[in-house]
């Protein structure tokens, strides 16, 4: 340790200098460091500047893997974001869909529950409601039927008062033989080539256009029109009331008129009518009016014990303008049509001289006789119809009541007869009246001729009254050119057409109220004089073919029906039977 004063001063001086130097060195060092620091800062700034510039310059450069990667990353990132956004929006949608679905479902459940409630309520109420509706439908239908019946009844009453002839029209179906010579069918011929249509129950329309022919469009009105589908039963239903009228004492005539092959024999007798008509035990099939009428007559008789009528039948045909008795036997008891004459009784009625009458006690007996008569009826195949009837068939059923006041024959005595001068001069052959043959005959159902022809109603001197039911199957009108007939068949055709024209003339004269009615222009009209101009209830069934090739004859037949409807003959009166 330096001495005090001098020595110690120099130490401290030394020391201060030393420290000063050290301080100075430190200060220098600090300056150095600060400079170094400043330089470093400068460098850093420069480096940053370089880096920034580098970054700026690198951006537009493409194809550089790191920048592509960056872009891809960015795109991926963006996609991710979009996917996320989509996911979240679909989650939102799903959620709202679920909510809507739940709402809908609950609405549906509510609606089903309501419907079920309604349904149950309806089920509970338905039987009553259905019953009520059914009842009201029945009532309305019944009302409508009653109205229809009433309208018809009034029409018929009016027609009866005027003595009108009831005319029905039946259109048969188209049949295979219609096609054979069928002309080309026009466009407007609606129903399978047919040109005749049942518009309703009372109207028939003929509508036809043929090249080179004027257009046909005509309607006709009749009491009843049956279309091709109408059954035999339906047709018979309209005939039935006349049978009651007959049993009540009215004269009745049911007549089928129409062109050859139009369905007259089918309507009156049924199919296969050249054989025996169907027995009444089977009236359900195609049996025609005659077999059904036979069954119905005997049914009505059996139902009413107060009635004890006796029925006789006679069968004639008008062939080539001659009348043949189809129930007569020749001398050898062989059935053969015998020619007969029309006479006028003193009462001015028409009768067939010597006509064979056969009493019938059942429908079967009736139809056996009809079958026998039909076997003799003239037939001839033609180009139009293979089984064409060549004669007019007239089946007459005579009604008499059994009374104790009758003569031994059971038949009334004969009114005086006089030979009709206009009739054929061939003598009539009155058969012997045999009281014994009236009811029990041996062999069964022998034929019997009446000494005086009572072909029509004749008042009985004993007060006994007859009514007649005539069932007429007329021969068909035909055009010889179309039916292709020659020789004797041509004469038949000519006779048929002439007699039908005479029938039409008679109706025309009656309709016009002419003073002279030309009944005697043909045997047919002469035979039917009392029916046509008298007090019989006359029903004409006009049969027509629907085919285009028959349209001319169809118009003619419908015209005939229209003319018949115009006839007013005065009210038919019943004969007093009981
Ligand atoms: N409504 C119908 N339904 C079915 N077939 C029918 C009908 N009408 C007629 N026919 C058939 O038509 C054909 C001719 O009928 P039908 O013999 O009755 O004629 P028609 O008018 O009597 O002829 P013709 O005057 O030449 O004797 C027959 O084969 C018959 O069976």
From TrEMBL:
Residues 404-416 have a biased composition (Low complexity). One of its GO terms (cellular component) is microtubule. The keyword Cytoplasm applies. Keywords: ATP-binding, Coiled coil, Cytoplasm, Cytoskeleton, Microtubule, Motor protein, Nucleotide-binding. It comes from the Eukaryota. PANTHER family: KINESIN FAMILY MEMBER 25, KINESIN-LIKE PROTEIN KLP-3. Residues 16-43, 69-96 form a coiled coil. It holds the Pfam family Kinesin. InterPro entries: Kinesin-like_fam (IPR027640), Kinesin_motor_CS (IPR019821), Kinesin_motor_dom (IPR001752), Kinesin_motor_dom_sf (IPR036961), P-loop_NTPase (IPR027417). Belongs to the TRAFAC class myosin-kinesin ATPase superfamily. Kinesin family. GO terms for biological process: microtubule-based movement. Residues 164-567 form the Kinesin motor domain. GO terms for molecular function: ATP binding; microtubule binding; microtubule motor activity. It is found in: Cytoplasm, Cytoskeleton. Residues 402-460 are annotated as: Disordered. This is Kinesin-like protein. ATP binds at residues 258-265.
